[in-house]
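Discussion board: Methods & Data

I've been asked by a reviewer to show the raw model output for two of the constructs in my manuscript, not just the figures. I'm not sure how much to include, so I'm pasting the format here to get opinions. Each protein appears as its amino acid sequence followed by a line of discrete structure tokens. Is this the kind of thing reviewers expect to see in a supplement, or should I convert it first? Here is construct A:
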Amino acid sequence: MIKKILGGLAAAILLFVGFVVTRPDSFTYQRTAVLPVPVEVVFPLVNDFHRWNEWSPWARLDAEQKLTFSGPESGTGASYTWTGNDQVGEGRMTITDSKANEQITIKLEFIRPFAATNTSTFSFSPAEGGTQVTWAMSGDNTFISKAFGVFMDMDAMIGKDFERGLASMKEVAEADVKKHAEAAAAAPPDAEGGPAEAAPAAP
């Protein structure tokens, strides 16, 4: 009887392993939103890691997480590491390519709770009513991630974070437009009699 149970268990494990290895070897998760602001307002929110905590969906998971910035202030070569509680873990992000107001490519390295290296991209394009922002993450599926994906909908889990992040990005961008407009209205006129500095205006 015990041999039959063990045999059945072994067969089930082999079937599961066989199914897992047939899962896709790579993944891409992405979400898109239209932000009612010019691209010149939203692009810097991603291109400058110092501003990520204003909109990142993971910033609120650990207010005490430690951030360390290195490289240029923004753009290609800029990098930052984070370490925090079990919800945010530990890792590093580095901007590997930055095309002004068009696309930002980021090398995303997870250290804890699991090791992985993925690629994140932010694409910006004109859209009716503002700027279309697409946030994507792609990478290779290991056996562990394939097995995890059998039981969890990773696209839904990560996609929900992306949606929250894009919604927060919209709020921050709109606040920036309002702040710039108020500053421009309060500034003394220049020699030509106009405002000292024109602020980006929402479409």
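Construct B, same format:
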Amino acid sequence: MSVSKIICFAVGAMLAATAAPADEISIVSNILGPEGPLYIDGNLYYVGWVSNTLSKWDGKTTTVLNHTPGCGHNGLALTKQKTFLLACTEEHGAILELDMTGKQLRRWDADKNGKTFDGGINDIVVTANGGAYATVFGPYADLPTSVVGKILYLAPGSEKWVEVASGLNYANGIGVSPDQKTLYVSETVGNCILKFKINADGSLSNRSNFALLNLLTKNKVESWWIGPDSMKIDSKGNIYVAQ
């Protein structure tokens, strides 16, 4: 999703707001493709996938913390070690680990079996036990020609990402329920939200449809890319989805 400003707590990838204000307020503007906002210790962190940047806004000043050309900065998650996991959504895809100043600590370009992240990494969520899930999107062209989306998992303490689901119709936003038992993921081209049972070892099972969005709200336009984008889940289990 490409927009040019951050409004309240919502952009292409959204924060789970604790309260919905009556009016939207623009706090930062002229951003090249804002995604992945995180509010941490009074600072707003967000990325620009067009500008390939991670920035911090302290309420007055914006500071660019990371600029990695060719990354296409997208989803952003905070680990239990207070580092960032950053999704690179460019064609071949990558996952970066950065410290809070934006310095790169490590980079993954392939999973445990050496399979590259073709189609780009779109979003990342960290679980309560320190594991993480990430989505592989798919080639962004005029028409999607194949069902290529995947979900990857990084177990607590592991250094290797493993594939735990495939055959998703362009996997995008991802979130975990407060009880850590259910994983939700957006299928952009499928125009729906899926859910999976999270097993004790982090593997996924019981795949099912959670929401067919065109049955909940009429499409404003007809497009392959009208489906759900990024996702956040609050402490009560409410799901916020950018569409």
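Answer (T.O., handling editor elsewhere):
This is acceptable in a supplement if you add a one-line summary per construct. For B, something like: The first strand starts at residue 5 and ends at 7.
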